[in-house]
Amino acid sequence: MSFITRGFGGRRRERDPRLPPGQSLVSDWPVLSAGPTPRVAPDAWEFAIGTENGVHRWDRAELQALGMEDIVVDIHCVTHWTKLDMPWRGVSLDRIFAEVQTDHRFAMVHSFGGYTTNLALDDLLGGKSWIAFEADGEPLSAEHGGPARLLVPHLYFWKSAKWVQGLITMPHDKPGFWEQNGYHPRGDPWREERYG
Ligand SMILES: Nc1nc2c(c(=O)[nH]1)N[C@H]1C(S)=C(S)[C@@H](COP(=O)(O)O)O[C@H]1N2
Ligand SMILES: [Mo]
Question: Cross-referenced PANTHER family, in alphabetical order (predicted)?
């Protein structure tokens, strides 16, 4: 009679359709860092993009002057937690790449402290990624990547490099830190691209 008792028993909560397969909701914001937290002075922070045509640098004021946007997105960590409706503030990579010339289709993102992660430019451009300076209405804390981190919410959160320093474009894809250690080269949570 389970077809009857199931209906009258404890009301089963509907799975939120924004939750990718294998993920569970959290309301707090866990800290996950592969090493110690680098201390980066916000006023000394700069962002650089290196391409086959040279290096382009922005200090914080120059980068923010490209246009700060407020966005609300869901983030998905490969360790199975998802946080919905997170408010962030940052500069879209589209605005930054508008000042850069490259024929390359991939990039290696570099962080203070030595962390790296690889992304296709198709996953960075088209309104898909930001250099974020604030989350939850506050400047990013050092633990969460302050003064600035990459935010790529449509991919697993290891792609959202904390303490971001810049990126180097590449003609071909190449694995970054976690990708060399078994994680998937792309990391789409809707396809459960956890491991390579
Ligand atoms: N520089 C740097 N960025 C990083 C990491 C890291 O160890 N170093 N960890 C990644 C991983 S695996 C995750 S899940 C998220 C965690 O971000 P949070 O600590 O703000 O939740 O940052 C990503 N970005
Ligand atoms: Mo992670």
Answer: OXIDOREDUCTASE MOLYBDOPTERIN-BINDING DOMAIN-CONTAINING PROTEIN, PROTEIN-METHIONINE-SULFOXIDE REDUCTASE
96 Cα–ligand 1 center, Å:
22
Q: Alpha-carbon distance 71 to 99, whole Å?
A: 22
What does the alpha-carbon distance between residue 68 and residue 134 come to, in Å, rounded to a whole number?
Answer: 10
Task: Establish whether residue 117 lines the binding site of ligand 1, counting it when its CB lies within 6 angstroms of any ligand atom.
Answer: no
**What CA–CA distance (Å, rounded) separates 162 from 29?**
14
Cα distance between residue 23 and residue 21, in whole Å: 6
Closest by CA position to 129, among listed 167, 102, 171, 103: 167
Q: Residue 142 pLDDT more than 80? A: yes
Distance 9 CA to ligand 1 centre (A): 41
How far, in Å, from the CA of 78 to the mean position of ligand 2?
5
pLDDT at 3 > cutoff 50:
no
pLDDT digits (tens, 9 = 90+) for 36-48: 999 999 999 999 9
Q: Ligand 1 pocket, 114 CB below 6 A? A: no
